[in-house]
Amino acid sequence: MAASRDSFENEEAEGSEGSQASSGVQVVLPSDPGAPAPLCPHGPTLLFVKMSQGKQETRKFYACSACRDRKDCNFFQWEDEKLSEARLAAREAQNQRCRPPLSRAHCVERYLMFIELPLVQRKFCQSCQQLLLPDDWGEHREHIVLADVSIAQLRRPSRLLFPLENKKTNAQYLFADRSCQFLVDLVSALGFRRVLCVGTPRLHELIRLAASGEKKSNIKSLLLDIDFRYSQFYLEDSFCRYNMFNHHFFDGKDALEVCRAFLQEEKGEGVIMVTDPPFGGLVEPLAITFRKLIAMWKEGQSQDDSHKELPIFWIFPYFFESRICQFFPSFCMLDYQVDYDNHALYKHGKTGRKQSPVRIFTNIPPSKIILPAEEGYRFCPLCQRYVSLENQHCEHCNACTSKDGRKWKHCFLCKKCVKPLFYFAAWNHCSTCSQCAVPDHSCAHPKSGCFICGELDHKRSTCPNVGIVKRANKAVRKQKQKQRKVIR
Q1: Coil, strand or helix: which one is 51?
Q2: What's phi and psi for 436, nearest 5 deg?
Q3: pTM for this entry
Q4: Across the chain, what does the average pLDDT equal?
Q5: CB half-sphere exposure, 33, CA atoms < 13 A
Q6: High-pLDDT (> 70) share of the chain, %
Q7: Less CB within 10 Å around the terminal CB: N or C of the chain?
Q8: How far apart are CA 35 and CA 58, in angstroms?
Q9: Coil, helix or strand for 40?
C-alpha cells in the first residue's frame, strides 16, 4: 500500500514523559449521509472534527483521506462552507491534473503490446517508472533505461518499481520473501482458493507466480492498491486502483464490479482478504472500508449463511490490538512477526525492542494456524495456539500474555502481565498511578494513551492524527490572518 510506515521506536514508552498537546482530530460521519463528500485527487474526502482539551468543536472540515501532509494533498474545506463556481472549477481542474498520465484501458493496451515485443525491444524507464514501447524511446533517450526486460521481471513489478519514499504519504515497505512465502503457504494450507490482496502487491505477485509455476497452484488473487504504476503490469481482472481509506475505486463502476465478482465467485466460498494498511492511517476509516468489502461479499451469500464471516488477515502493529478488536471483536492477534525488505527495523531475527512489531490480526481460529517451529514458534496446549518461544503461559492470567515476543512478568497489583523492561530499566508498580511504569516517570502526566487523541493503543509521537492537527491549525491561522487584513 502506498502510504506511511512511520517509525514506531517509541511504542513501548507507556508511562514515559512527553510533551503534551491540547488538541486533536477525529473522523466523524457526515451530518447529511446522503450528501457526497467533496473530491480530492485521492477520491472522496473524509469529514473530521477538531478536539480541544477533550471537547469537540462545532465546526467540522473535510480533508484528504490518504495524505496526512498538506504538501502532498492540500485539500481543506469546512463542512458548512459554500464554494463559488470558480473555486469548484479550479478544484476540478486540479483533480484532473493529478490523474495518472495514462488511462487504465490505455495501460492494458500498452502491456499487451509490450509482452509481444522481442526481448531486445522490451525496455523500462527507471526515471519515469514506465514500460516503453519503441515509439517512446526517443522521449526517454536521456533517462536511465533498463533493457531486456524479461517476462519473469514483469511478473515481479515490485522489484522493477522504486518504492515510494515520502514517509507521511506514500512510503512503501514491502513484505520480505520469508513473510510473503509464509502467507502464501498458510493461505494454501487453510484451503483458500482466492485471495483479495488489499495493499499487498508482493503477496499478489507470489500467488500469481505460484499459479504459473511448475506445480500450478490453483489460488487466484486480485490486487487493490492506490499506486497507479501497477496498472502497467496487470489486466483489469487482476488489479484495481483503490483507496482503502474511503473505499474508492479510481476506475469507477467497472473496477467495482471486478472486485464484487471476485468476492462472490463460487457463492463467496474459498476467499480470504489479506490487507497491509499504512501504519500511520486511522483505524476507524479502515474498519469502515473493510466492513463495506465484507458487505459486498455477503451479497453473494444465502440467508442460511448470514452468520458466516469473510476470513481476514489484517497486518498491523501489535499495539493497535485494542483498537482493531473494538471494531472487530472476533479478531485475535497471532504471534507471528511480519518483516519487510526495505525497512531498517522490521527485520526477522532481531531481538528485544528491535523485533518487528507487526502482527497478523484474524478472525480465523488461531488453533488452525500453524506457525513455523524453525523460526522460533511453539504450540501452547493450554492456549491452543502457536506462540513465540519466550511467550510463557501465565497461570494467573491463564494465557500467553506477551505481545512483543519477550517474556512478560505478572504484576499482582495491576492484576495483569506487564513488559519486563523499558530500554534498560525494569517496570515497577507506581502507587500514585496505580499501574506499572518506568522509574523516574512523571505522575503528573496522563496515565496512558495518546496526548493528542486520547487513544490507549499508541503515544503522541506515533499518533496518526498529528498531520491532520497541523493541517487544521494551519487553516485556522490562515483564516485569522485574512480576517486581520480585512480589519486593517
Answers
A1: strand
A2: -75, 140
A3: 0.82
A4: 83
A5: 1
A6: 77
A7: C
A8: 19
A9: strand
